[in-house]
């Protein structure tokens, strides 16, 4: 899986102006089974998206579609989950 960390580099007003299309983008990829979880950082300096184990080229294409590319920088970390609580056991890969 991937942990995608977004960090805003533009003022909150610009982020808020793109919030509705960003949420539509999130909804599309949750519905497709690609996104696992997402949320704002606290304090509100960006957000986190947990992404299923897909190819990195596909991930890059998906991230490029996010309207927040105009207001945020993205840091992508690939994680090979080897242990998880029972509630998250489906994330463990061989």
TrEMBL record:
Signal peptide: none annotated. Belongs to the YciI family. It comes from Paramixta manurensis. It holds the Pfam family YCII. SUPFAM superfamilies: Dimeric alpha+beta barrel. Residues 1-78 form the YCII-related domain. This is YCII-related domain-containing protein.
């Amino acid at each position: 899986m991937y942990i995608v960390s977004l960090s805003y580099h533009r003022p909150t007003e610009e982020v808020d102006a793109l919030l509705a299309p960003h949420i539509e983008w999130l909804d599309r990829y949750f519905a497709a089974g690609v996104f696992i979880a997402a949320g704002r950082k606290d304090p509100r300096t960006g957000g986190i998206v947990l992404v299923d184990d897909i190819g990195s080229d596909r991930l890059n294409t998906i991230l490029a579609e996010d309207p927040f590319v105009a207001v945020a920088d993205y840091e992508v970390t690939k994680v090979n989950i080897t242990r998880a609580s029972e509630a998250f056991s489906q994330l463990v890969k061989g």
